[in-house]
Structure formats: C-alpha cells, structure tokens
Amino acid sequence: MFYEGNKLKEVFLKAKKERFGIIASNVVFDSQIRGIVQGYESQRSDGLLQMSSGAVKYAAGDTKNMKVGAQVISSLVKTISSQYNNSGVGLHIDHATPNYLDFIIYCVENNLVSSVMIDASKEDFEENIRISSEVVKVAHKHNVLVEGEIGYIKGTEDEIVSDTELYTQPDEALEYVKKTNVDLFAASVGTNHGVTKGAKVSLKLDLIKKIDQLLINNNVERGIVLHGASGLTAKQQTDAIKNGVVKINKDTRYQMEFAEATQAYWEKEKDAVVRPSNITEDEYTKDKSRFDPRKWIIHSEKAMQEAVENLVKISGSVGKSITLK
Ligand SMILES: [Zn+2]
Fold this sequence. Notes:
Layout: H1 5-18, E1 22-26, H2 30-42, E2 47-51, H3 53-60, H4 66-81, E3 89-96, H5 101-109, E4 115-118, H6 125-141, E5 145-149, E6 155-157, E7 160-162, H7 170-180, E8 184-186, H8 205-217, E9 223-226, H9 234-242, E10 245-250, H10 252-269, H11 288-291, H12 293-315
Parallel strand pairs: 1-2, 1-10, 2-3, 3-4, 4-5, 5-8, 8-9, 9-10
Antiparallel strand pairs: 6-7
C-alpha cells in the first residue's frame, strides 16, 4: 500500500525503536518501481521510493517539466503499491536544493509525496536552518515529512557535486534539529555517493552514535539518514543501524544491477537482433519472441526485486511492516 506522511512516520519510529533500517530506493521508471515494490512485498518489509530532481526531469520526457515528471512517478508508485497489503511504501523527494523550493511546495500541496528532503547544506548554517524551517512548516501542514542535511557528503549527489569532506558536528546537528523540527536528518559521517569499495570508506560509527545520543538526551530523538551507502559492506550498514541510522539510501546499486541484467540478457540473446556471421542474410530473421521489450526488461525488473530483497535482509526490516499486526 501507499503510505502518507503519518504512516511513514510510524514506520521510522518502529525502525528507530527496534533498531532496523528502512531501505530508500531511488527510482525513475515503471520497471524499477514494479520490481522494487514487489521485493518489499515479498519480504513483508516497508520501504521508501525516492525521486531525484534528475529523475523527475527524465520522467517528463524532453520538456523536462519537473511537475509533470513528479506526477508520473507519484501515480506509478501509488497505483502499483495499492495492489499489496503486506507492506507499504512512501514516496520521497531526494536532495531538493533551495532553487527547487517551488517544486517541493507543488509536490507537497498536490499530495504527490509522503516526504521531502530539503538539501540546503551548501548554504551557510543559519540560512540552512531558515530554509529548512520554511519547508517543515508547509510540509507538516500537509502531512508530509521532511529530511534535512547539514555538512557535505562526499561525491556526486545527482546535480550536486562536492569534493570536500565535512563531517557533521554533533552540536550543530542538535541545534539544526531543534530549530527546524525536521523529521529525519542526513548526517555526513564519512560515506561517499556512488559505489566505492567498503574499505575506502571511513564510516565514523562513533560520530553517528554521538549525534544520536545527544539528540536523545535533549528529547529530540530523530532517525539518522545514511546517504551514499551503495559502497558500504553489510557489516558497516548493520553497525550504522545499531548506532541510530534508520534510513539507508540506495541509488547506484540499483542502476548497476539493472545494467548487469540487461547486459547478461543481450550477451546471450544477441542473435535475436544481430545476424551471426556464419548465417547468410537469406537464412536469418530477427526473433520477435526475444526482442519484444517485455522479454528482456523483465529480467532487469526481477534483478531490481532481488536487489531490494537482499538489501532489506541486511537492514533487518524483513517481516517488520507496520501492516502486519
Ligand atoms: Zn544523497
């Protein structure tokens, strides 16, 4: 089923209390959404689908109209997820920078999403607080959750490129959460965007724990979000969850699995569209039963499903859906 903000909040509260993680999966088109929603359902796990600014532009086609793109993705997610009762998903806007403020407000006011991320982390601290608070005010009025961020996260975040590495300071995290009242909080704790080998990532577990404890001690406990988690090992992820992380973002991992499944199919079935050199043109016909897009995209779709099934096993959310009493 589809979760509005209040239900999604329940999901994160349960995850925080029981110390498991919710996998947030970046999506653009229907095959990804189907595969991933089916994967959450088969594991009785709640989840979150998220769309970046680049994704909504793509979804609209050559107009790149973000409002249209968000409507496309939102209706796909809502309609597909409505078929299932043993799990639920919310829809989230990933990394919306202040220049997309109008877009965020549009999605919130038109009930397209369950949660939004305002990423004003490139602004100075006071300005970040001001912009994030503004988004929280509008979003909460419409039953939409808000994720905020301070500090940079190394790597490429869709349209944001950062090569500096700034760790989140616990005191700043506390001040930011208190002043903005965001529901979730993206901490810069040493992860990279894109796939890197786990060994290269210096994930600061002690920093996650410090931030979590400080928020708890000040009665503003929040779920911490881990961005750029595609390159982390399973152990790094479970350790992060134990220390206070509730939302783990996955984007690159899915892109890779989708590409690999497509490549594997065409490596095997190439002669469906390309004449082998040992066959004459007269003898050769292209094989519709193998080049029909449904015949090959389904393999990539199933790869999405398998990927999320594996991810929720690691994050511990299997069988934890709030739909199951
Ligand atoms: Zn991110």
